[in-house]
Write a structure and sequence with these properties.
With 124 residues, the chain is mainly beta. The protein is built from 1 helix and 6 strands. The strands form 2 sheets. Strands 1-2-5 form a 3-stranded antiparallel β-sheet, with no helix packed on it. A 3-stranded antiparallel β-sheet has the order 4-3-6, with no helix packed on it.
């Protein structure tokens, strides 16, 4: 069983990319200490329409100004992030955060995308 888990076939995320989606999300800000330490937070819900359980789901948020020009992004690094696990045909909540690049009023729109995930049976 250990050998099969270590070396057995794993599902590739790219083949299932369209089956994991952001169902809802919202943006918020918080100040930590002084007013120059403003953090942007995006939290929401993911859904998995596949028959595969996924772990280390990486969520990315991109932020746009009024002219629809991207000026900031949060790309999750799973080393410093509590990883998300989504069971087959299930839902999971996520929350990502980073220091804001601009004042909150500049964050006109944003887009959240699932960028990667690993088969839950994959050890490494």
């Amino acid at each position: 069983m250990f050998y099969d888990r270590m070396f057995g076939p794993k599902q590739r995320f790219a083949e299932y990319r369209d089956q994991i989606a952001v169902v809802s999300s919202e943006i918020s800000w918080r100040v930590s200490g002084s007013e120059s330490n403003v953090y942007v937070t995006v939290s929401g819900m993911l859904t998995n329409h596949s028959d595969v359980a996924w772990k280390d789901v990486g969520v990315e948020a991109r932020f746009f100004d009024q002219s629809n020009k991207q000026f900031d992004a949060i790309t999750v690094n799973t080393d410093g992030y509590r990883s998300v696990v989504i069971l087959p045909h299930g839902e999971a909540a996520f929350r990502i955060e980073s220091k804001a690049a601009r004042p909150g009023a500049d964050y006109h729109t944003y887009k959240v995308t699932v960028r990667w995930a690993k088969d839950v049976d994959q050890i490494f």
